[in-house]
Amino acid sequence: MRESANAQAFARISGAEPVVVDVQPAMDVVPGMSPNIILTSGAPMTWERYYGGQRAAILGAAQYEGLAVDASDAENKILSGEIIIAGCHDYGCVGSLAGIYTASMPVFVVDNPTSGNRSFCNLFEGKSPFRLNYGVYNRHVRENLTHLQNDIAPILGRVIRACGGVALSPIIKRALHMGDELHSRNTAATLLFNQTIFPALMKETRNAEDSARVLYEYLSGGDYFFLRLSMAASKAASDSAHGIEGSSMVTAMAFNCHDFSIRVSGMGDEWFSAQLPPVAAKLFPDHDDSEIEFMGGESTINETAGLGGFAQAAAFPLQEYQGGSVDKMIQMNLAMYQITLGEHPEYRIPYLSYRGTPTGIDIFRVVESGQTPVMDIGVAGKNGGQIGAGVLTAPLECFQNAATAYRHRYLS
Amino acid sequence: MRESANAQAFARISGAEPVVVDVQPAMDVVPGMSPNIILTSGAPMTWERYYGGQRAAILGAAQYEGLAVDASDAENKILSGEIIIAGCHDYGCVGSLAGIYTASMPVFVVDNPTSGNRSFCNLFEGKSPFRLNYGVYNRHVRENLTHLQNDIAPILGRVIRACGGVALSPIIKRALHMGDELHSRNTAATLLFNQTIFPALMKETRNAEDSARVLYEYLSGGDYFFLRLSMAASKAASDSAHGIEGSSMVTAMAFNCHDFSIRVSGMGDEWFSAQLPPVAAKLFPDHDDSEIEFMGGESTINETAGLGGFAQAAAFPLQEYQGGSVDKMIQMNLAMYQITLGEHPEYRIPYLSYRGTPTGIDIFRVVESGQTPVMDIGVAGKNGGQIGAGVLTAPLECFQNAATAYRHRYLS
Predict the structure, then answer these.
(1) What is the rounded distance in angstroms from the CA atom of residue B83 to the CA atom of residue B70?
(2) Angle B153-162/B209-219 helices, nearest 10 degrees?
(3) Structural domain of residue A257, as residue ranges?
(4) Residues B398 and B256 sit within 8 Å (Cβ to Cβ)
(5) Which residues from B are below 8 Å from A179, CB to CB?
(6) Interface test with A, best of B171, B181, B196, B198 (most A CBs within 10 A)
(7) pLDDT tens, residue by residue, A96-111
(8) Is residue B291 part of a domain?
């Protein structure tokens, strides 16, 4: 049974054809969203356990949304249950770093017609190292979020609708031939997306030069723009493979400020967790390892779906950004074939003679080999903000926990 | 003396900072151009020796320019000297395949402020395999050339001027990190160029939706668009290093339908030639090697300046397009370090841990090692049109001839 369940799960995750169809406020499109909910990354915890940047981001979100007048007011309302903290993944969303969705924030709407499911991701906050999802909330961050919501999202949504939606797999496929692995490097994908929507952008903004300029500046203002679309695409692919009875395939990897956690297709919505290991990081100038702080992260959905660290041999330029060497990148990428169910039929790596990326992590292959997934992640600093990038290697324990639970459920 | 002359030549070719500043009719900007001149690729020959596609292209050009009513009329006027056939390189130009410049055809104007020189390249004819530079002249080709001249060139020039010129080295540098080697693959460079000019394109075409659409279609209609700019950039770099007394560095590699030829910095404008060797090609479906025909080519200026075959380890996707394997590409790329004077300070290859591309071919290193330059080229068919792509390995003999002449001039 496990074998056929996993074959089905692999077919779903690798056969997804995600299409971004709109940009809308979370409240209007995310099922179950409510004005007093704040979504954050990783397996949900009791409020007391959130600390540092992830805690600061949640408190900032409450203020941004007008749910609280200040941080102390927000804390009280969270403790009283007036403000509800929940996990992104439970709402079809996926969070970058701290995550952070409030009701009014704009999200990409991504459909996967192959399986009929839908996912969401919020928008890249831009190049500044100081962003809400990196644990910072101040006037600058607030104004930028307002700008995204009022100036960028409406015209971006209009342009995407005018395109009749934009298919994401063809862009991801091409970007893998152009130095991206779609997690820490989205440079080519961002250019390809922009190229795709430009005719509509020109047409839709013809009588509004300011809108065109503002949107163009946003689209070309950071090579990370497409990350939110690759995340939503991977979430749509992964969700379509979730809930298959008997499947031992991983359908989500995520972390909060304490724990790294996974979900498994045949194991419902339970998270299997273990303490976060250290990250092997290359930091921006004038930073050191003592400043590194985990504040959550779900962009590892990309590795779950065969991208990021699982496609790093497509992205040798990353050695400059997150450290490491070409040989190490190749070796890590090849190691992922040991723990996956198959090779992606569309996502291919030129350096590996167009071999498909290793896709569909099997908890038993991880436990038996002792090899755990490697992930390309952004690294946050204790005072908030991005201070570098690096490679995170998942702890074995959460896969062992999942395997034990799987055996208990299916084999006892 | 040779050592210091070569150091100077290398500094010039690798220190160029080419900027495209305009698009104008050849007649208005190319020094020495005249209404009755047709420029074609490779060392100039007597008219009788031109055959096949290169001959057809020249005859087509005469008709396109209105210099002759038909092919036979054109032949007579060429034989009588009424129409003059000359080499692109002698006019600061560089030809793709057959080359082919007439007075009214638009050209990119590329300045190299570092050395104060200027070069030119005509425009990519678009995706159709049937193009004048691939030896075809018919109604479709004529209409397309007219479209380039009347519809594309004026607005493209206006946009480039509105940008205040576009620096090409930064685009080339980034594209090398994105799967391009800038000869047979210009996909990323084309996207990056488009991204750079889009704000100006939107502004300049705001009141002319048709112009915007037409120009956009041209810019995004083929991944080869940027090749003409990388060629002009390489020509500007190479020319800036030409004419240095005592230098044995190659400043041009070009071929006509018979011979492969090189120019050497310290050896004036003489071409050193040898018969063209076979090309190792991967052909489009339904073609075979018996159809391959040489019809000239000067895009090998890119290899002369450290790109193309000299940067192929940056462009593993080429294995799908022109054949070969990743290992072979790496090995060929590494072999080029044996025959070059240095490593380019800006053009770097991620796979080789960001080593600079091998730049500045020294005829003596070629002769002593027996290793000749490898070049990524488009392959034409006997009936005209592109039928594939491949790798051309230069014949040793022309380097031997150049070395003999060098010794005669400088060492006897």
Answers:
(1) 13
(2) 90
(3) 248-411
(4) no
(5) 177-179, 188, 350
(6) B198
(7) 999 999 999 999 999 9
(8) yes
